[in-house]
Amino acid sequence: MVKVLVTGANGMLGQDLCPMLEDCDFVDEVIETDRHNLDITNEIEVNKVLNEYKPDYIIHCAAYTNVDKAETDLENAEKINVKGTENIAKAANKIDATLIYISTDYVFDGTKKSKYLPIDAPNPLNNYGLTKLHGEQAVQKYCKKYYITRTSWLYGHHGKNFIETMLKYGMEGKELKVVNDQFGCPTWTVGLSEGICDIIEENPDYGIYHICGSKETSWYEFAKEIFKQAGVDAKLFPCTTEEYPVPAKRPKYSVMENDGICEDWKVSLKKYLELRIN
Ligand SMILES: NC(=O)c1ccc[n+]([C@@H]2O[C@H](COP(=O)([O-])OP(=O)(O)OC[C@H]3O[C@@H](n4cnc5c(N)ncnc54)[C@H](OP(=O)(O)O)[C@@H]3O)[C@@H](O)[C@H]2O)c1
């Protein structure tokens, strides 16, 4: 009898992950939680809910995810990404559950010249990356049975994402300048969910894993491929990071060696666009 509890179940990843877990024949029960029934920043509530359900696995998707806003809202980002994760990690340990914590490529500074490995030293450039890294450290400190799964450039049908932003402005005929000097791996929430299910089924050694789309690209090349596949004749132009200032500094190169998804990101993009509800 394998019971899985998901935090942040109403988020972009959670909404693709939960139905997939329901379909797994090695999972017997899925408990979906979000802010309204499990506020991860409330230690008493976290202990109460986890004690009540006693799940075998906790997939911790809940997070403060607004990268730019976190630059001026560090207090809330820390409260959710660090203190919230600490609450989950301590409570998971008490009930001997395995914790799967979703983390990010933004823990890296992007100065490496080859793909990032789980053993590479993190050095976040922005508050979001810093708080997610401190979340990782809380997981390692307080929980014996854990997987930290870092992912990158995530998109899914149930959330605001780069593809939808591009298509919206592209179809409106707006001129789009997209940065062509930041490189990473676009990842579909469905592929990441499959990788998470594999962890539960295969029980690899505890530790850090990178799960992201295969092959790297720049944001500009990603946008170009979106318009090509969607058949949209957009006014798209490449620009540099300096030409497109945003509050949070991003790594120039956050390509990760992949432990989870072998599918080319262009193939995942095609599937995403085919399933897209207009
Ligand atoms: N999106 C990306 O590009 C990306 C890249 C790398 C890693 N990740 C990681 O992947 C995970 C999933 O990301 P996502 O894109 O699915 O994020 P998301 O859509 O923003 O979902 C996060 C969820 O967490 C919930 N939440 C926030 N504070 C909470 C609290 N105090 N208690 C309980 N729930 C709370 C949010 O609820 P509200 O809506 O009510 O705030 C939301 O439903 C996160 O850990 C994120 O750091 C994301």
Provide a descriptive summary of the structure in words.
Helices cover 38% and strands 17% of the residues. The protein has 278 residues and is α/β, with parallel strands linked by helices. It has a six-stranded parallel β-sheet with strand order 2-1-3-4-5-10, with helices on both faces. A two-stranded parallel sheet has the order 6-9. The chain is globular, with a radius of gyration of 18 Å. It starts with a strand and ends with a helix. The site of NADP nicotinamide-adenine-dinucleotide phosphate has 26 residues, from helix 1, helix 3 and strand 4.
Helix-strand sequence: EHEHEHEHEEHEEEHEEHEH
Tell me the name of the CATH homologous superfamily.
NAD(P)-binding Rossmann-like Domain
In CATH terms, what is the architecture?
Answer: 3-Layer(aba) Sandwich
* Alpha-carbon distance between the two ends: 39 Å
Content-based structural category: alpha/beta
Number of strands: 12
Largest sheet: 6 strands, parallel
Q: How confident overall, as mean pLDDT?
A: 96
Percent of residues in helices: 25-40%
Low-confidence stretches: none
- Major beta sheet, strand line-up: 2-1-3-4-5-10
Strand content: 15-25%
Helices and strands in order, then pairings?
Blueprint: E1 3-7, H1 12-23, E2 29-32, H2 43-53, E3 57-60, H3 74-94, E4 98-104, H4 127-142, E5 146-151, E6 154-155, H5 162-171, E7 175-179, E8 183-184, E9 187-188, H6 189-202, E10 207-210, E11 217-218, H7 219-230, E12 235-239, H8 265-275
Parallel strand pairs: 1-2, 1-3, 3-4, 4-5, 5-10, 6-9, 7-12
Antiparallel strand pairs: 8-11
Bound molecules: NADP nicotinamide-adenine-dinucleotide phosphate (NAP).
NADP nicotinamide-adenine-dinucleotide phosphate binds next to helix 1, helix 3 and strand 4.
